[in-house]
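Lecture 7, part B: from sequences to assemblies.

Below are the input chains for today's worked example.
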Amino acid sequence: AQSVTQLDSQVPVFEEAPVELRCNYSSSVSVYLFWYVQYPNQGLQLLLKYLSGSTLVKGINGFEAEFNKSQTSFHLRKPSVHISDTAEYFCAVSETGGGNKLTFGTGTQLKVEL
Amino acid sequence: KAGVTQTPRYLIKTRGQQVTLSCSPISGHRSVSWYQQTPGQGLQFLFEYFSETQRNKGNFPGRFSGRQFSNSRSEMNVSTLELGDSALYLCASSTLTGEDTQYFGPGTRLTVL
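Predicted structure of the full complex, as structure tokens:
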């Protein structure tokens, strides 16, 4: 079984400042890692995913994440946030070869302020 | 390409009733997964269907069931509704494996009174 921990439930940040949203996972098997974003009253949209290879993954909207196997982390970063980045962000894992079952973290609400 | 569509978008039911939610995946996608999202429990996996067969199942009671049709459209059913079933139910579709991106629909907001 897998589990995902997002330690920060809310992260306030000023516009144009950098941000890091933290994600740690636990699994006894190999996993794929994902970050999704959810805007109010909408479904989830994939920001980026790590399957294998380079540990630095670039996604949409200027986001990137780094997979750290030794620390079992997959933190999401953006060098300069915009008001439109205000949303809830979910880290998720799925077991390699285990189909499409995603295990999600509890989410981090990113609030970008002027 | 049209995205994942879910119907209805909003639903109000009373305790003890049953409900059926529908999900139409992106054309060509054969995998459909369902998730329940609540403020208390977050996002939880319900089940996944691929080519009309249930491939994965989460830890939900038997009151929650689903099926997939030959055109890949999927339905989920909840019988004997409880207040705690109030949630946003999300459907996601993808092509085949866990490596593929899952595309989520806007969800069905179910309120149980």
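Note for the exam: The interface with chain A takes residues 4, 31, 33, 35, 42-45, 48, 50, 55-56, 58, 90, 92, 94, 97-107 of chain B (CB under 8 Å). Keep this in mind when comparing with the next example.
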